[in-house]
Structures are given as structure tokens and as C-alpha cells.
Amino acid sequence: MADLGNRENQAFGTGTYTMRASDLSKNDPIMLKGRPCKIVEISTSVSGKHGNAKVTIVGEDLFTGQRHEDVVPPTENVDVPNLIRKEYSLIDITSDGGVSLMDEQGDMRDDLKLPEGELGEEIKVCFEADKELLLKVTKAVGEEAILSYKIASKK
């Protein structure tokens, strides 16, 4: 488990904190090649006649979907992005793909666009079918995007 004191102290400086490579697991966030990623594969090779143990980490960029890979010693500290996730009700979709969102406190925002590709199309189809949607927005190291959605349950 990460040292939470370290995490809190670094949260406002760089948007990342450090964690030992051997403490990471699949689906954890990590910075690879300077990009915030989700680990999709992780494996550790044992030390032997060819050198020390190594951790091979393959991650998928949270915002672009691009794959990145790195190999590090298990005792090395790696950067992990601070992720901020928040749900918003979808109020409207503009003709240029912009979205109007409202949080639980009633605060509005209109600075995001629908994601490209299949996710954006699914959201648009559901919205046009008059379904009440909650969009999940993730923010990491200065970037922010809609990464998923769910249909709101009726009360």
C-alpha cells in the first residue's frame, strides 16, 4: 500500500505520488512515458544468471487508449497519478459535441466534449432516447475527460 502521507504531500505539487513498483497490480494507475495509464499487464521476472529481478509494466493511456510499456527493478519507485473522479448528470449535447453537465450540488459546467468513438456514440444514442445519464469524468495531471457513463436509476 502506498504511503498516504507521501501521497498527500505530493498531491498539490506534481499531480503524482511515488509507489514501489513491486506494490503495483493490474488496473492500478501509473505514469508511463509521462502519460497517466491504467496497468493492463504486469509481470515480475525472477533474478537469475542474467541479472536482477525486473517488473514489466504495460499500461493503457487513460485519455488516448495508447499502450505504453516500461521495465523497472521491483524496488524502484514509480510515479502514480492522482486521479480525481466525479459523476455529472448530462443536461444537453450541443451540435459541436460539447456537453452541459451538472454535479450533485447543482453546479453547471460546459467545458468538456463527448468522447470520440464508440463511447461518445453510445452516450449520444442514450441521450437521444431520453435516458437520464450520469457521465463519469476523470482528471489526472492536468487532463480531464469523460471516460464512462451509466444510466441513472429512477428514484
Automatic annotation (TrEMBL):
Post-translational modification: eIF-5A seems to be the only eukaryotic protein to have a hypusine residue which is a post-translational modification of a lysine by the addition of a butylamino group.
SUPFAM superfamilies in UniProt: Nucleic acid-binding proteins (SSF50249), Translation proteins SH3-like domain (SSF50104)
GO BP, sorted A to Z: positive regulation of translational elongation; positive regulation of translational termination
Subcellular location: Endoplasmic reticulum membrane
Keywords, alphabetical: Hypusine, Protein biosynthesis
Gene3D superfamilies documented for this protein: 2.30.30.30, Nucleic acid-binding proteins
The keyword Protein biosynthesis is assigned to this record: yes
GO CC list: endoplasmic reticulum membrane
Family of the protein in this entry: Belongs to the eIF-5A family.
Annotated protein name in UniProt: Eukaryotic translation initiation factor 5A
Naturally occurring in which organism (per UniProt): Branchiostoma lanceolatum (Common lancelet)
